[in-house]
């Protein structure tokens, strides 16, 4: 967010540099290995939630699309993935990768166990 003045023109010249910065953040591509490294560090800091003795296991994540950055995270049970832990992961992604001024989406999928 940037505050400008229509009367004096203060900070109007900063708008386009901010637009370019947000556009590059919005189209950023993150490799799967680096993303999984950040996810593992986040898990080490704050353990995933438990419910009735069952613990959420995050297997891996990958970036599905850009504009906006969308990440698919594979877990053992998506019912255990609480929205507060999703916000925590988004904040960790913003801290590590920037992603300022752009929405970040997370899609939770259960990893299929093919027999």
Task: Describe this protein's structure.
This protein has one domain: K homology (KH) domain (GMP Synthetase, Chain A, domain 3, 2-Layer Sandwich), CATH 3.30.300.20. Helices cover 36% and strands 21% of the residues. The protein has helices spanning 15-26, 32-45, 83-97, and strands spanning 50-51, 54-55, 58-65, 70-75, 105-110. The strands form two sheets. Strands 3-4-5 form a three-stranded mixed beta sheet. Helix 2 (32-45) packs across helix 3 (83-97). It is elongated and about 60 Å long. The model has no long low-confidence stretch (mean pLDDT 87).
List keywords for this structure.
GMP Synthetase, Chain A, domain 3; 3-stranded mixed β-sheet; two-stranded antiparallel sheet; 3 helices
Protein topology:
Layout (H helix, E strand, L loop, with lengths): L14 H12 L5 H14 L4 E2 L2 E2 L2 E8 L4 E6 L7 H15 L7 E6 L5
Parallel strand pairs: 4-5
Antiparallel strand pairs: 1-2, 3-4
Helix pairs in contact: 2-3
Based on CA atoms alone, the radius of gyration comes out at 18 Å
Q: What is the residue-mean pLDDT, rounded to a whole number?
A: 87
SSE sequence, one letter per element:
HHEEEEHE
Biggest sheet layout: 3 strands, mixed
Broad CATH class = Alpha Beta
- How large is the count of helical segments? 3
Uncertain segments of ≥5 residues (pLDDT<50)? none
What's the total number of strands?
5
As a percent range, the share of helical residues equals 25-40%
Total number of distinct structural domains: 1
Which fold name is given in CATH as the topology?
GMP Synthetase, Chain A, domain 3
Hey, roughly how much beta strand do the residues contain?
15-25%
> What characteristic shape results from the CA principal axes?
elongated
CATH superfamily: K homology (KH) domain
């Amino acid at each position: 967010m940037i505050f400008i003045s229509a009367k004096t023109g203060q900070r109007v010249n900063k708008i386009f540099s901010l637009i370019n910065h947000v556009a590059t953040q919005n189209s950023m591509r993150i490799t799967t290995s680096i993303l999984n490294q950040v996810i593992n560090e986040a898990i080490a800091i704050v353990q995933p939630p438990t419910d009735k003795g069952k613990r959420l296991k995050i297997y891996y994540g990958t970036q599905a699309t850009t504009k906006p950055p969308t990440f698919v995270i594979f877990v053992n049970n998506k019912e255990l993935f609480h929205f507060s832990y999703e916000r925590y992961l988004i904040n960790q992604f913003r801290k590590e990768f920037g992603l300022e001024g752009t929405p970040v989406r997370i899609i939770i999928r259960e990893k299929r166990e093919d027999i």
